[in-house]
Amino acid sequence: MGKKHRNRINSPKKNNHIPSEVIAAEHEAHAKEQTASGRKNGPGNHQSRG
Fold it and tell me: Does the pTM exceed 0.70?
């Protein structure tokens, strides 16, 4: 029973100390990234450009 909590050590820690402004700014940045041309193919549709 010694290694029962091994997965707890290897799992990434939750960081609850992120200020809400950072999250809001991130959402805005992602919203600006998705232009109409990029949204056309839907998520997960990787096409080589150029």
Answer: no
